[in-house]
Design goal:
There is one protein chain. The chain has 10 helices and 16 strands. The protein has about 325 residues and is an alpha/beta fold. The protein has 2 domains: about 150 residues, Medium-chain alcohol dehydrogenases, catalytic domain (Quinone Oxidoreductase, Chain A, domain 1, Alpha-Beta Complex); about 140 residues, NAD(P)-binding Rossmann-like Domain (Rossmann fold). Helix 2 crosses helix 3. The protein is globular and about 60 Å long.
């Protein structure tokens, strides 16, 4: 089968399509024929950060949608032929293995690309807004870098929760388009200069929850924008800034809470709990309302490098997806 691999060679990052053996299903696994796979910026980050340094050769891809072709021993609730979506290590491939703990049934009305936009992005949003952020109806959410896949998922999930959303982006047209997905107010900026505008929007009360997809360059301004007992989720650092000043007095007096969002050290049970809650309480709302995950562009399977370049150009509004072809 065809599979994409990434490795560091001669000081550079290289992505290659390889011919490899189709994986064999093991106990507690699902073998899935992949039809679409979502791109996530974090899987291509090399250098400063948790993955530092050029990687050894490894299959890449984090999430996919496809058809179950084999069910491993001990797995229940899934059947051959079922359309599913889930986390899929090495998902930029024609076949992949999924854990049933992080696999979801694909809504009948979804297209493959829409399903591939759910497993990582919306589960990260669920972690930030629901599991840790405890966002409530009527509260204010602010998302810096709102046009990304995670950002647009946060807007849609917040809308389901009945919350109000402020988004920042350097592109005013993107902000205008996001109004139809539930964005309440947009601030067209890439700079940490949004405090005054945020205060005006919230009548001086501040924001209850902030999602930082940008990094340390906006952290100090975000702290200023938080309301009493506000929460701040840190999920990205596309600016490459991993150090930032923190006003301890504001943190203390305002009873603020800052938390990180990563699956690296979460237990299988913790991951499963988030997936189960999303499937039970939020996934059905797409069918009920007709809403769909925002997919900006779908690239053919042989154009992963072009898809990656497009993502890193920051032109997208929503998710970028790879369509996987089969003979």
């Amino acid at each position: 089968m065809k599979s994409y691999w990434m490795e560091g060679r001669e000081g550079q990052l290289h992505i290659d399509m390889r011919d490899v053996e189709q994986p064999q299903v093991g106990a507690g696994q699902l073998l899935v024929k992949v039809h679409a796979a979502g791109l996530n910026r974090g899987e291509f980050i090399v250098g400063p950060g948790p993955h530092g340094g050029l990687p050894q050769a490894k299959p890449i891809g984090m999430e996919a949608a496809g058809e179950v072709v084999a069910v491993g021993e001990g797995v229940s609730g899934f059947a051959v032929g079922q359309r599913v979506m889930g986390r899929c290590p090495g998902g930029f491939a024609q076949y992949g293995l999924m854990s049933p703990l992080e696999t979801m049934p694909m809504p009948p009305s979804f297209e493959w690309a829409q399903a591939a936009a759910i497993p990582v992005t919306f589960m990260v949003a669920h972690d930030m807004l629901v599991a840790q952020g405890e966002l409530k109806a009527g509260e204010w959410l602010m998302v810096n870098g709102v046009s990304s896949g995670v950002g647009t998922a946060c807007v849609q999930l917040a809308h389901m929760l009945g919350a109000k959303t402020i988004g920042t982006s350097g592109n005013a047209d993107k902000l205008l388009k996001l109004k139809s997905s539930g964005l309440t107010e947009g601030i067209a900026t890439r700079e940490p200069n949004f405090f005054e505008r945020t205060q005006a929007i919230t009548a001086g009360k501040g924001v209850n929850l902030i999602v930082n997809t940008v990094g340390g360059s906006v952290l100090a301004e975000e702290i200023r924008c938080l309301a009493y007992q506000g929460r701040l989720a840190i999920v990205g650092y596309v600016d490459g800034c991993l150090q930032a000043p923190l006003n301890i007095d504001t943190l203390h007096a305002q009873r603020l809470r800052i938390f990180g969002v990563s699956n690296r050290h979460r237990t299988p049970g913790e991951r499963q709990a988030g997936v189960a809650d999303f499937v039970a309480n939020y996934l059905p709302r797409f069918e009920q309302t007709g809403a769909r995950p925002l997919v900006d562009r779908v690239f053919p399977f042989d154009q992963l490098r072009e898809a990656k370049a497009y993502m890193q150009s920051d032109q997208q509004l929503g998710k970028i997806v790879l369509s996987v072809q089969h003979p």
